[in-house]
Amino acid sequence: MVDKSKVIICRCNDVTQKDIEELIDQGITDIEMIKRLTHVGMGPCQGRTCIPLVAAIIARKTGKSYDEIGIPATRIPTKPVQMRVLVGDDDEE
Amino acid sequence: MRLEEHPVIDFSKRRGKKVTIYFEGKPIEAYEGEPIAEALHAAGIRVLNYSTEKQRPRGLFCAIGKCSSCLMVVNGIPNTRTCITLVEDGMRVERQRGAQPLPRDYKAPQWKETEKHYGDIVIIGGGPAGLMASIKAAENGAKVLLIDEQPILGGQLVKQTHKFFGKREQFAGVRGIKIAEILADEAKKNGVEIHLETSAIGIFDNNGEKLVVAVEKNKKLHEFHGKAVVVATGAMEKMIPFENNDLPGVYGAGAIQTLMNTYGIEPGKRVLIVGAGNVGVILAYQLKQAGVDVVAIVEAMPKIGAYFVHAAKVRRLGIPIYTRHTILRAEGNEKVERAVVAQIDEHWQPIPGTERIYDVDVIALAVGLRPSIELLHQAGAQITYSRELGGYVVRHDERMETTVRGLFVAGDSSGIEEATTAMLEGKIAGLSAALLVGKAPVQVYDEIKKAQKDLEEFRSGPFGKRILEGLKKVMIND
Amino acid sequence: MMKNKVDIAIIGGGIIGLYTAFELAKRGVENIAIYEKRYIGSGSTFRCGTGIRQQFGDEANINMMKRAVEKWTTLGDEIDFPKFKMAKTGYLFLLYDEKEVESFKRNVALQNSLGVPSKLITPEEAKEIVSTLDISEVIAATFNPTDGKANPFLAVYGLARKLRKMGIEINEYTEVKDILVKDSQVEGVRTSKGEVKADIVLNAANAWAKIFNEKLGLNIPIEPYKHQGIVSEPFKLGEIKPMIVSFKYGGAYFTQKANGGLIGGIALKYGPTWDLTPTYEFLREVSKNFTKIIPALKHISIIRQWGGYYAETPDHNAVIGKIKEIEGYYLAAGFSGHGFMLSPAVAEGMADLITKGHTTLPFDFYDPYRFERGELREQPIQMG
């Protein structure tokens, strides 16, 4: 048997397949709520690796279509940026 | 380990000056121009950090600065993406163990105006699609600003050491790596303003015009102003769930190609490949080319996805391909030492008793690509799902314009296909954008039509059928 | 199936609507339904800065917040969700000139007189609380250790879970289109999924509240302004415990979330507008101001920026109460950025108002008719 607590869905926050499936089993099938309760997609990778995996788990377990599941909004900055860079300070340290 | 001999690439010419970096105090030899994580890999270091919540060992995974698996403390600064941060002589690199304290630093940064660049069209991504879009728009009189994250133009073409087939005008018989050079030269000749190692972080509406904000070398903020934007940001590798899928040594296929073909670093000694599509199969013979042992390719589907010619070549090399097989887990102490695979039944469930264990140090994931839509999604373009095109994609019309006026898409970021279709889409997007900003003469309609016909023709083959199915959902019809 | 008749229909599945439903249920009202046009929390609650403070400059808001903090403290146990906890990590206001110090001295005196243990401290004491602060320009600070923050996701989830267990209907992706009124009496609501009869309707739609009011011919000034927030990648927990506020630097406020990321914003606002697109201007300004307060933040990356509404009234205080023109219609909206922190007290007062006709909380202060009478309240201390 597969140990789902060792299947990593979100590397940033160490969220496992077990974590996601437990929420879905409790009736939480909205990707927006799953995201906020587990922090998948809210780490430094900004959901690039994990969100498609979460959508696939929801689709498999609930039968929802991918369009119905949708994906959470993509926000600026689309890559993490240091505040120093945003201030404009490009001096070498 | 570094690759010293390679039948196609001469790394001795490519490598920069030798420098020394310090990993947890220990000196390590590296070359200017290579990222930290890659240099550490060459020195046999696989664990780059321990994760924040569960202290799991993590290593290189995507090698393109996106997955956040390679965060380390560099010169005292935490959360440095070492797979895209280039080595510098004397650099101090430490494994990051969970979240790090703030550096004790009491000097506020100085406010500075950003460097501003003005053009007609801003093109994000210098792969086959973005390069072609740049060339075509510039050829027709548009001032093009092209930005790309990598230090060299060409996108995925740079990693493609094999020859293309198909039509002569579509670069048949030429290696991808060479096509990249040809297109980059053409872009320069046409006066395209090129900004390398520059990552877009957002597309904004600026009183009806477009503003692309980007960061150069993770240090310097730039503004790119134009009237239209073409997003050709390519694709990202998919991940699959299996036990210990985060163990260092589980790499995306692209990361392995980056290590091996871009930096001349041996990815490992023995590799299991997951996925028998074109990427997996081409990777298998590229690994062989570099002298690395490939133990097997496993594929969950009942059929090999790759083109017959590629698959046949791999079989001739003696690499077995097992269809209807999947990976169950990675095993090893802090790094991959074994891979356990099994046969699956028609419900995709592993069949007990069919487990097979391979002693490998690398598990290569070639389980497909998905379009990089982040910037498009952020900019407000409408998204829909198409399995055939790789996942969530943006909707676009036949001139490659999205639901946002002036925002175009081309190449894999509009749906996963081929370099050839990426170039054709790039051509259409570049010409259409040039028309929209009022630079191109109306005659370019004919050229757009010609490219649309070429696309149609290319997709008329058996592999195109799936794509056309996907496009039905994605296309906006006027 | 969604019920077609309820006793109380609540418009808005944010913290105000959910918490009020909980307080009503505790008072024995069973047949309640909540209508939320997207998912619970999606309007303003999930977009908030997470702060909870009693350091206001006026009696009503201090008293309301005192009660709110008492309730925040026990909410986790009350809803059988101990994972939800208010973190009493304090609010630290950094002060840079004599005028600011004078006015905060007055605030502290008022707060102390009402039982809030805030105090004026030296810059060095502030630095003991947050060691990375740049205090070179700071001349004093105020700190209240019983202020703090809470996770709005857990608050909303925990409340919703409890409400569902209590049999209260929460309808997500169900938009209320109209409040149905006949002969000046509320009759129910018309939703995107059908009509529902109800004798009492609570408008807890915050920024969107005015849409319903206008349709009913009520002129209660609430306007949506775009404010924004950012989150950073995580760093070591405990580095920035309190919510730090600096009016000098952009009206900045920020703290560290339980998972280690920074959360906060500045006072740059746009509007009135329904547009919530995050702006480039904010991204740069927030970085400039935050790094003036804690220079070491310059090495930290911002990973997300979003917009949310401050539903603003002319005096930046909420409008809460019974609407006289329409029997059965209640309003709790226009929170001007303070809805999350105030919600437990608002809910308690509103539930009393609906079930008993009065509350001991200072609801007069938030009287919806004060604007009509030309009585503007003193502006509260407001950030963002």
Q: In words, what does this structure look like?
A:
The complex is a heterotrimer of chains A (93), B (478) and C (384). Chain A has a single domain, classed as BFD-like [2Fe-2S]-binding domain (Arc Repressor Mutant, subunit A), CATH 1.10.10. Helices cover 42% and strands 8% of the residues of chain A. Chain A contains 5 helices and 3 strands, in the order ββααααβα. Chain A has helices spanning 17-25, 31-38, 50-62, 66-69, 83-87; strands at 8-10, 15-16, 81-82. In chain A, strands 1-2 form a two-stranded antiparallel sheet. The model of chain A has no long low-confidence stretch (mean pLDDT 93). Chain B is α/β, with parallel strands linked by helices. Chain B has 11 helices and 28 strands. Chain B has helices spanning 11-14, 36-42, 128-139, 176-189, 253-262, 278-289, 308-316, 374-378, 419-436, 444-458, 462-474; strands spanning 18-23, 26-31, 49-50, 57-58, 71-74, 77-81, 92-97, 115-118, 121-124, 144-147, 193-195, 198-206, 209-216, 220-226, 228-231, 235-237, 250-252, 270-274, 293-299, 321-323, 325-331, 338-343, 356-359, 362-365, 369-371, 383-386, 391-394, 407-409. In chain B, strands 1, 2, 3, 4, 5, 6 and 7 form a 7-stranded mixed beta sheet that branches. In chain B, a hairpin with a 2-residue loop joins β1 (18-23) and β2. In chain B, α3 (128-139) packs parallel to α9 (419-436), α5 (253-262) packs parallel to α6 and α9 packs antiparallel against α10 (444-458). The longest helix of chain B is centred in the last third of the chain and has 18 residues, at 419-436. The relative contact order of chain B is 0.13. Chain C is α/β, with parallel strands linked by helices and 384 residues long. Chain C is globular and about 65 Å long. The model of chain C has no long low-confidence stretch (mean pLDDT 97). The chains are: A mainly alpha (93), B alpha/beta (478), C alpha/beta (384). At the B-C interface, β6 and β12 of B face α7 of C. β3 (81-82) of chain A pairs antiparallel with β16 (301-312) of chain C.
Q: Summary?
A:
The complex is a heterotrimer of chains A (93), B (478) and C (384). Chain A has 93 residues and is mostly helical.
In terms of per-residue confidence, which ranges of chain B show pLDDT below 50 for 5 or more consecutive residues? none
Provide the helix percentage of chain B: 10-25%
Q: Biggest sheet of chain B: strands, sense, closure?
A: 7 strands, mixed
Which outline of chain B best applies?
globular
The total strand number of chain B stands at: 28
Q: CATH homologous superfamily of the largest domain in chain C, by name?
A: FAD/NAD(P)-binding domain
Provide a count of the helices of chain B.
11
Compute the separation of the termini of chain B in Å.
55 Å
> What CATH first level of the largest domain in chain C would be assigned?
Alpha Beta
CATH fold title of the largest domain in chain C: FAD/NAD(P)-binding domain
| Name of the CATH architecture of the largest domain in chain C | 3-Layer(bba) Sandwich
Mean pLDDT of chain C: 97
How much strand content do the residues of chain B show? 25-35%
Mean pLDDT value of chain B: 93
